[in-house]
Amino acid sequence: MQRDIRKWLMKAHDKGNSNAAKPAQPAPTNTEKKPPLAELKPETPIQGDQENSGRRKTSKYFAKDKQKPKDEKELEELPTKRKTKKDDQSVKPPPSKKVHKVDDSEDDDDFVLLDKKKNSVDVTPSKKLKTGSGRAVAQKPVGNDASDEDDVKDAESPLKSSGRGRGGRGGSSASAGRRGGSATLAGGRGRGSGRGGFMNFGERKDPPHKGEKEVPEGAPDCLAGLTFVISGTLDSLEREEAEDLIKRHGGRVTGSVSKKTNYLLCDEDIEGRKSSKAKELGTPFLTEDGLFDMIRSSNAKALARGEATDHVKKVALVPKKSPQKAEGNSLKTNVNRKDSTTGASPLKQKEQTIKHSSLPWTEKYRPKAPTDIIGNQSLVNQLHSWLKNWNQQFLDAGNKGKSKKQNDSSAKKAVLLSGTPGIGKTTSAKLVSQMLGFQAIEVNASDSRGKADAKISKGIGGSNANCIKELVSNEALAVNMDRSKHPKTVLIMDEVDGMSAGDRGGVADLIASIKMSKIPIVCICNDRYSQKLKSLVNYCLLLSFRKPTKQQMAKRLMQVANAEGLQVNELALEELAERVNGDMRMALNQLQYMSLSMSVIKYDDVRQRLLSSAKDEDISPFTAVDKLFGFNGGKLRMDERIDLSMSDPDLVPLLIQENYINYRPSSIGKDESGMKRMSMIARAAESIADGDIINVQIRRYRQWQLSQTGSLASCIIPAALLHGQRETLEQGERNFNRFGGWLGKNSTMGKNLRLLEDLHVHLLASREFISCRETLRLEYLTILLKQLTDPLRLLPKDEAVEKVVEFMNFYSISQGDTDTVVELSKFQGHTNPMDGIPSAVKAALTRAYKEGNKLRMVRAADLISLPGVKKAPKKRIAAILEPSEDGLVEENGDALAENEEEDSSDTEDLEGTADGKKLQSELNSLNSKGIQVEVELKGTENSNTKKTPRGRGKGGSSSVEKPAGRGRGGSGSSEKAASKRKR
Ligand SMILES: Nc1ncnc2c1ncn2[C@@H]1O[C@H](COP(=O)(O)OP(=O)(O)OP(=O)(O)O)[C@@H](O)[C@H]1O
Question: How does it assemble (predicted)?
């Protein structure tokens, strides 16, 4: 595959992909599996128009022309809830031979073993049944069990989301793969069974007659009370379309078969989990045509009875009431209600009514008692008991004798409520405070919450922070006051994770306030893991609020709808709850908005209104990786996978790379030998490597059009291969996805390179070293380390210190450089190079080195400019350490030469932006050409010679060439030394 990708990158992608477009396997291979399907509807011939009609000829999704309802008689027997209720018709179980075999393994997981797939999916459309008689009859009485919660939970498949929007899919390799061709890119790795090609990796097979049948429009809620499970590929509808159709007609769709399932909707049976469960439970199978008939028949019946206008069946059929009355009746939220209209004059009442009706519903239906809050009841209780015991814990405990209760050391003075927006955190805090008689003072993000002034006496009338400080500290005075007369106060700090630049020091100040506070503080945030709150969490009792379930939300929304006289379907409300992602505030707002233009709200209306909002969910890279790797990762549609992987195209691949090895693929079953898993991991690793190659193309050559391909290779394929259960590989490891280690390692590498560069420049400056940085790293570092540490370990203290300092001076090695040498020589699993050196020796070394500083000259970051060049290139000259006395008392009469060398060393020991050596050679060549180089010196002690004109350079500058001829004229050694000192 890697080769394929490379090839693909090198030449233009063959968009036509004509080869792939041809079906590779024309004939079905497993016709013997099909008889059950054939048996199912033997009496109805396949209709020509269904089989051969032009694409989208009659689809509701594309055109509106309708077919006549057919099979009226059969329709009479439909086991809908309405039927059951009205006609009290007994329902019969379907004959066993009519049971379809359905494979749902494909639905459940798109990465099942290939062989199985091969057998299962190569079905030609002609083998499928197209008649309308395939529906079966419910075996059990159909009840609208609203508490079908487990099923509903199961239904949380990604399939239920909005329209498919798969426009881009019909592309070359994808469609080819789907039809059994082997797309080039797939390299035989695709899913077998005609789905090959990684471009459509993980997608379900297309319905063979997609869009070719008319989708019937039935009586509203004709499927109410019926629960369906969809399995396999349907004949003309995509799964999502089928799901929509059912929901639109009041039916439920769940993810797995249970006792409450009325039908298993499928057009082919390849004996998957769902179908065997259905057989086990005796759940009837229903074909797509059967479903259509069911819907059509309801329509016909409704028309016959003149019920066509009876739209919403399962809505609250309450007559429209005045909001107050309705609210009073349906919502059990009367605790502490002060705005009761009873007893007021009619005028006043009217005013209040107007005022009340103009209120946003979020305010109007704000919970009035803690029990009205949906979800998180245990957390609300915890908050209640924390607040209730606060005074006892933190105030009364100090008053000896008054309270016998010991102050619990683990008790926190503040509480931090965290959770996504609109789930009732603020409401809970306020209600609990109110319930316990606390006066709540709320400070939120719109108030500036910066650091308080040091003197809080300035506070009143000053900044908020000052007021808060005043508030929390002034309570101290009130400790001895009569509490019954003075209301207790609680400070609610909302959106503490929103304290930003404007609230400088805000969190630190908040912590200080908590420490000194004499009143309870409730902090509220959305993201408890925010970096800003890292220290705050240590001072707070942490209560993490979860989103209410969609059933809980729907129930509450239904109460509100009833109170407002709005007719709305429960399914529609569940859809709304799901679309708003658990945000009750948004759900109420949306409902109110819709109520402005309609009094009957249907499932479709909700879908239409919130079509795009589900996509706006802001997910973290961790969530994206969790979803991709999760058990349901195989069920995700391709566009969902792309969305997830592109949610953070930098971090998601890193997280995938970091964690893929920890996943045990759900598709491999038991795999005792571990071979399958290994092979999956190998394929994932290969794909990640491909992703890297593509990523280089994207970054280096700005080939942004490859972004999706990059995501595919580095995220989608590895996740599709390995999604399943995460397990730990090492003891003590936490079973959570780790953050990508690459970032940290890359930054360490950058830091180490910088340090190495410094060391290198210093060594070059000593002119005792001429090699490049790489050689220094590979060959000299160990020797340097030995020279710097061995004496300290082996020799007596003084001798060792003297020797090492001498060595450091000789090679211009600073203390920092010593640390660099030690740091770069550390390796995991090896002993620390500084081990075994007594700390007294280390201290003596530091002292001795520092003493030498008095005599040592440090030249730092000097600039040079080339005369004759208008805009002289300025380059930094390395800081060098130069023991001045050594230089003066240089041995063997080489002092002069040495000094001259040192003078020119300014020019030689340059550290360019990247490589000192490059600069060095540049300067050498300049010097050899006789160009004079002027050096500006910085950091001089007696800087009367800031600019020291330099003589011509010599031919060479390295120590090897030291004795070589000097090109200098009159400057003597003493002058050089003086010049050096001045520097
Ligand atoms: N759990 C809930 N039960 C009932 N109503 C709720 C719940 N959560 C939110 N609401 C409704 O949404 C409105 C806003 O809720 P609230 O301000 O408490 O949310 P929040 O979690 O504090 O949000 P944020 O983090 O944005 O401050 C409430 O007035 C109420 O009408």
Answer: Heterotetramer of subunits RFC2, RFC3, RFC4 and RFC5 that can form a complex with RFC1.
User: 756: buried, middle or exposed (CB in 10 Å: 19+, 13-18, 0-12)?
Assistant: buried
Least confident of 98-112, 213-227, 738-752: 98-112
CATH of domain 375-544: 3.40.50.300
Ligand 1 midpoint to CA 620 (Å): 22
How many CB atoms sit inside 10 A of residue 241's CB? 20
Q: Distance (Å, rounded) from C-alpha 220 to C-alpha 533?
A: 51
Largest CA distance in the chain: 122
What CA–CA distance (Å, rounded) separates 409 from 513? 18
Q: CA 55, CA 49: separation in Å to the nearest integer?
A: 11
CA of 427 to the centre of ligand 1 (A): 6
761 CA → ligand 1 middle, Å? 61
DSSP secondary structure letters along 863-892: EEE-TT-SSPPPEEEPPEEEEHHHHHT-ST
> How many angstroms separate the Cα of 707 from the Cα of each of 472, 640, 692?
53, 15, 11
Cβ–ligand 1 distance for 496 under 6 Å, the answer no
Ligand 1 touching residue 498 (CB < 6 A): no
With contact defined as beta carbons under 8 Å apart, do 162 and 611 qualify? yes
The matching CATH number, chosen from 2.102.10.10, 3.60.20.30, 3.40.50.300, 3.40.50.10190, for 74-110+123-161+208-304 is: 3.40.50.10190
User: Is the distance from the beta carbon of residue 252 to the nearest atom of ligand 1 less than 6 Å?
Assistant: no
462-471 pLDDT tens trace? 455 556 666 6
What pTM was estimated for this model as a whole? 0.45
CB of 370 sitting under 6 A from ligand 1? no
Residue nearest atom 30 in ligand 1 by C-alpha distance: 366
Confidence category of residue 983, pLDDT binned at 50, 70, 90: very low
